[in-house]
Amino acid sequence: MISNRESARRSRMKKHKYLDELLAQMNLLKEENNQIVININMVNQLYLNMEAENSVLKAQMVELSHRLQSAEEIINCNNVNAGDDFLKTWDFLPWESERIITTYPV
Description:
Elements lengths: L1 H79 L4 H4 L5 H4 L9
């Protein structure tokens, strides 16, 4: 009878020890899970920031592409009209060479 009691006590101790180990493992896994959730949230925030920055850069690229296209059209227009006398009329403006000096009565 003493051996049965001793065996039951050892069995309870073994179960208690196993339960403590499971609880410790559960707490460790909860901590790891929390750290993973924190990392996921941080990566998501970084992703959203990069996505917003990417949108801004795409908009800037579109704007700069339009400006480049306009500049190229102006250059092409000037190259086509390089021999045109219409544009040469702006090279000499008569009022630049003649200055009119007037005096006001005091």
